[in-house]
Design brief:
Jelly Rolls, single chain, about 375 residues, 24 strands, mainly beta
Length: about 375
């Protein structure tokens, strides 16, 4: 059952109050929708991607006629049984904000009329160490009022507890109404980059493919994968049946490399990246996007783990109004480093989420959400 005291609600907040807490995200009055999972009982071990989940369906705003809304920030927090008291981040696996179902034809026509791209169904993924995404001021993801979205959240428990712990996941989606804005907003769309490894390497036989784990934060519905071996030089098959984005790392320090499919197949025009979020599991040290054509690092996310807990404390991110140029004609590679200091295999993932500037009148990603 959902927590009655934390049913989905729409709340008004001033931009000034929002900016004072987390930085400015636009002009005009801000709005937010809040969502809450059921309370989970945590006692036995729930590894990452295998914990209890709950999905809440929300509508940002009900209007007589559809109007454009701009999502500017999302956040998820672990709370105790009372739904308010903060609990340890070690119980947070991930949360995902996704459009409910595929974009209906009328929405596709409206987006094209406005010159906007059809968004990836999964729009935001929050993870341990990065439980908030807040775009630079003046940027957002355009959606429509009356549309439905799913907020999926998963908890985890890295160790067995003597006494049960009761936790839930509270999420918040902040948006602006286009009709209330006094300045132009710049649209973003998501390009997720997933590091994949062959299943026969890196203890990949423990992967979710064989054990039924959840893959909601892999974004495999939109990412185009060309996978290399762990040593990584020659592209192999991009079939998910033979490769995995969720694998197990043996004890010791290990580097995983993945040569990406050319970005020109997914970004149809020259643009800049304005926000980069990354996903690593505990014991992950870094995730780096490298331009193989120039040899330069585009962005390197660095993770900091809690010293006395199996949990990620912080993962660095990139945020800029000016943006970071990325050459879509170049070859790129993802490089993840894990340092498993335990004496047993540990689960891992490595995903980088690029939020790039949309260009009016051009379609950004082929087929997403409408095929």
């Amino acid at each position: 059952m959902k927590r009655d005291c934390l049913l989905v609600l729409v709340v008004m907040l001033s931009l000034q109050a929002s900016a004072s807490r987390s930085g400015e995200s636009g002009s005009g009055a801000g709005h937010a929708v809040e969502s809450a999972t059921e309370i989970f009982t945590m006692q036995r071990i729930y590894p990452s991607m295998f914990g209890p989940t709950d999905t809440d369906r929300v509508t940002l705003l009900q209007t007589d006629e559809p109007e454009v809304l701009w999502i500017t920030a999302v956040r998820s927090d672990i709370v105790g049984a009372d739904g308010e008291t903060p609990e340890s981040a070690e119980y947070f696996c991930h949360s995902v904000l996704a459009r409910h179902g595929k974009a209906p034809p009328e929405r596709v026509r409206q987006l094209r009329k406005l010159g906007l791209s059809v968004q990836n169904r999964k729009m935001f993924t929050l993870v341990q160490g990065l439980n908030e995404i807040r775009f630079p001021r003046g940027f957002g993801i355009p959606v429509f009022s009356n549309d439905q979205f799913d907020v999926l959240a998963m908890a985890m428990n890295p160790k067995e507890r003597e006494q049960p712990v009761h936790v839930g996941v509270d999420s918040r989606i902040e948006y602006l109404r286009a009709s209330e804005l006094d300045q132009e907003m710049k649209p973003l769309f998501l390009v997720p980059l997933v590091l994949m490894v062959p299943r026969e390497t890196a203890s990949a036989d423990h992967s979710t493919h064989h054990h039924g784990g959840d893959d909601t934060c892999l974004d495999t519905d939109s990412a185009e994968h060309v996978v290399t071996s762990v040593e990584g030089s020659v592209p192999e098959s991009h079939e998910s049946a033979t490769h995995t984005g969720h694998w197990y790392v043996p004890p010791g320090r290990h580097t995983y490399r993945h040569r990406l499919a050319p970005l020109r197949h997914r970004i149809q025009f020259d643009t800049n990246v304005h926000y980069i979020a990354s996903h690593l599991h505990p014991f992950g040290e870094s995730l780096e996007l490298i331009d193989l054509t120039t040899g330069d690092t585009v962005f390197k996310a660095v993770a900091r783990n809690f010293p006395n807990r199996v949990a990620v404390e912080n993962i660095t991110h990139y945020s800029s109004r000016e943006g970071l140029a990325i050459d879509r004609t170049h070859e790129h590679e993802l490089v993840a480093v894990y340092n498993n200091t335990t004496d047993q295999d540990i689960d891992s993932m490595a995903v980088m989420y690029l939020y790039v500037g949309d260009t009016f009148g051009k379609r950004a990603i082929r087929g997403l959400g409408i095929d």
